[in-house]
Write a structure and sequence with these properties.
homodimer, alpha+beta, Alpha-Beta Plaits, 2 domains, four-stranded antiparallel β-sheet, 5 helices, 37% helix, elongated, DNA-binding
Chain lengths: 156, 156
DNA sequence: TATGAAAGGTTGAACCC
DNA sequence: GGGTTCAACCTTTCATA
């Protein structure tokens, strides 16, 4: 499936929805860009079909939600098992994201949240039980993400 | 700001919306859990007021979108400027997320996407220009995230 | 705090240019 | 590809227990 080039409208739609999906209707985007709502809906639907849109998620402030400990666990996995171990790490309760790095010693970065040290100890044990070697663990002070604004278009 | 305990319905609502917000209406959640739709909407609205819900974002497959290079850049920032530099890093075109670590040498992890090596070189230069010291750079093979799913454990 | 009902907005599909 | 229309669904607001 050859991935087509994105045009300016595609990128604008993605930008707007990446910033806020609940508060941004197709009609709003269409109005701001100057096309009809159904044009925007068609683009969204096409982007989904092409697999460029992977999903849509609520963004939770775990600290506010009572999970004060936000930690990143650096692990080592043998390359052949790296991908499978990364997937399995996601099933450990408390884990919220996993990054697989192409190379390097610490090639799996697991992020997990917990309410207390006991939670984190258990998570560490669970990860080790899967076969991951834990190299280091650090507290995360903050995490930000943002839309791809590659296309330094207007912001609003 | 006393962070209230989340009850089982709160956690279920968060779980469902974290998994898929576009495809999950309040009515669906209400039906699956066995309460009325407006009960679910009130919960969502309360979670927003309390700051537990921070936003909602589209999840993009950057590789499919034509940004083949997915890289993590490990940086060092002096603690007093760490938070501000982390925020500023978000403004660099191509940067999609930033994590600040509490301690350690490499205390800012920047994730960026690009179409080619030139993009990445420019991003590196931009980060350095902000005052970040770049320690290392690695290609990311994959990134997964998942809802917080240890709701079955807690009781209240 | 949970529920129900009416009004207005949003979506997806079929059809036309 | 872009646009229009319409039925079904969703959300907001208000009223009620």
């Amino acid at each position: 499936m050859p991935s087509n080039e994105l045009d300016e409208l595609d990128r604008y739609v993605i930008y707007r929805l990446q910033k806020d999906i609940r508060g941004t209707s197709a009609a709003t985007i269409a109005n701001d860009y100057g096309v009809s709502p159904s044009t925007v809906r068609k683009r969204i639907s096409r982007l989904e079909d092409e697999g460029i849109i992977r999903g849509s998620h609520l963004d939770i402030d775990y600290e506010q939600a009572g999970y004060q400990l936000f930690t990143i666990i650096f692990c080592t996995a043998p390359i052949p098992e790296r991908e499978q171990l990364a997937q399995e790490a996601l099933t450990v309760p408390g884990v919220v994201s996993v990054r697989e790095l192409m190379t390097g010693e610490e090639n799996i970065h697991v992020v997990a949240v917990g309410r207390d040290g006991d939670d984190l100890s258990r998570i560490g044990r669970d990860l080790a039980a899967l076969g991951l070697e834990i190299v280091e663990e650090e507290l995360v002070h903050n995490e930000y993400s943002c839309p791809l604004h590659w296309f330094d278009k207007q912001s609003d």
